[in-house]
């Protein structure tokens, strides 16, 4: 059975958070530039926000599926679309903040957060594309073999 796209995305994000934590630990031990460390910590916070949204959507999906008997594929598509819309909204909100920001540091932090969320969207797009191809192949085999 194919994993929910948001579960796959969450795994990718959790791996990134783990590597960022290691990076922060190493950078702290070697006493690298404090701004570099702060940027990595900010990225961790942004990614943690993303994982909380994913968990919230997946929890709602399980409840909705149990209550309504909605198909898993349909529910996954709806969840993925909601998540994508939430990310776009957050990026738009951050871009507005960026326009209003006064300091170079504040702008840099906002640009980093926007880039992080756009990276998440890129991973989501790649996962969705792979899933679309898989579904198309499955649909063809069902049509051809009648299973």
Describe the structure.
The chain has 147 residues and is mainly alpha-helical. The protein contains four helices and no strands. Mean pLDDT is 81; it is low at 137-147.
Report the portion of residues in β strands.
Answer: under 5%
Number of domains: 1
Distance between the termini: 16 Å
For the largest beta-sheet, the strand count, sense and barrel status come to: none
Quickly give the structural class: mainly alpha
pLDDT < 50 stretches: 137-147
* Tally of alpha and pi helices: 4
Compressed to H and E, one letter per element, the order equals HHHH
Overall mean pLDDT stands at 81
Q: What are the salient characteristics of this protein?
A:
89% helix; disordered C terminus; mainly alpha; 147 residues; 0% strand; single chain; 4 helices; globular
What's the structural blueprint in terms of helices and strands?
Blueprint: H1 5-29, H2 34-68, H3 72-100, H4 104-145
Helix pairs in contact: 1-2, 1-4, 2-3, 2-4, 3-4
Question: How do you describe this structure in short?
Answer:
The protein has 147 residues and is mostly helical. It is 89% helix and 0% strand.
